[in-house]
Structures are given as structure tokens and as C-alpha cells.
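ingest -> validate -> predict -> emit
validate: passed (alphabet ok, no gaps, 244 aa)
predict: started
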Amino acid sequence: MKPFLLLATRAENDVADEEYETICRFSGLEESRLHRVRLELAPMPPIDLERYSGVIIGGSPFNSSDPPELKTEVQRRAETEMRDLLDEVVARDFPFLGACYGVGTLGTHQGGVVDRTFGEDIGVIEVALTEEGRRDPLLRELPATFHGFVGHKEGTRRLAPTAVLLASGAACPVQMFRVKQNLYATQFHPELDGPALLNRIEAYKSHGYFPPGDAERVKDRIRTGPRVTEPEKILAAFVDRYAR
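emit:
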């Protein structure tokens, strides 16, 4: 089987490694079958899509909608590299799954509007599949409504004209969409479990998602909230469908 490619942008080694571990665990991929490229460490190497079964983008502290002057040089470079890769990915309808940051990358690439209108506090929300979502092969094993982890400063205000809405939420209407037949992006996090989210809360407590002194309160909200078990199935379905 050809490996999958993970494009990552998390600078914290422990958080980056945990993201890699949970994606392997939820997808069923062995480490040898998930090739990771950390774009925050070095420029993207040449990517030959013929070597891979599909592309996965993890979450990120980057915000696509920030003004260019507020973005670091690393973020501007990574966004340019991902945009160039998406030109080929979209043209070929090549299997793609973007978790959270995928909304900002794939959504903006396709002409959607991503801004801070529909940001959500870190927590657990109810996600509802649309009629199209219930028919989608990646989501057929999921119930019509389920809980998912969120925590993002920006979200989709206007869906790209090429995108099909697959899942929605009360505070953020666009929770998952598809472009063409094989390109997906989620706003919720299919790559997270409770312990990993608690670690991210600690790692990013000074990144503006909440007042730093509220970290323990936010963690308690996760510990006492509904169990999140369904989104991780999307990773397994993605690998099962596209492994080649």
C-alpha cells in the first residue's frame, strides 16, 4: 500500500508528535504508512502525489484570515506551499482530508470566505449531518448527530461555490464540506481524543483561545462534557476508502 502524507504545522514537538500518534491510531495506519512533513520546520520538499494514497492536513495554530502583516514568515511560506500543492490536488481530485486547518486551506483555495464570524470556544459541540452528509461514503457509519471537539478563532462565513456542505453546527454552520468527490475538510477535530485535547489546552493557553488563567476551567469543561467517539471514525473511513 502506498503511504499517506501528513502535512503538519505545529511547532511544539510534544503536540506535533501526539497529533501524529492519534492520526495513526484512529486511521489504523502504521507509522511507516504515514509520511509526515512538518512545514513549520523547513520548506515543503517536492511532493510526487503518485507516491501517496492521499493527503491529510492536521490542525494548526495558524489562522488563514489573519492580515498578511500579522502572519509570520513561516506561516506565509507554508500557506503558499499548501496553496500550490492544492492546485494539483484539486485539479486531480486527489484524496484529501483537512482537519480544522483544512477549512482555512481548502476553503479559501476554492473561493470560500473564512473569517472570525463563527469562531468557537474550546469544547464539545453537537454536529449534525446534512442530507448530503448522510449519503457521503466517508460518513455512512456515523449517526445523524454526534459530538465533536472544536476550538477555533476562525470559521467559514461563506462556503466555497465548489463545496458541498456535509455537516453543520449551531454556532458554526459549516462543520464539514466536500469539494468534487474526494476532497474533504472538517472544522471539528477527527484527530483528537480527550487526553490529546487537554494537552493542547495546556500547550496553547497563551495563544489567545481563552485567558491563560482559565486553562483549568477549560480543561474541566472537557473532562465533564459529553464523550466524543464518532469523529475519529472519519480517519479510518478515509484510509479504508483510498488506500491503494
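The mean pLDDT is 96.
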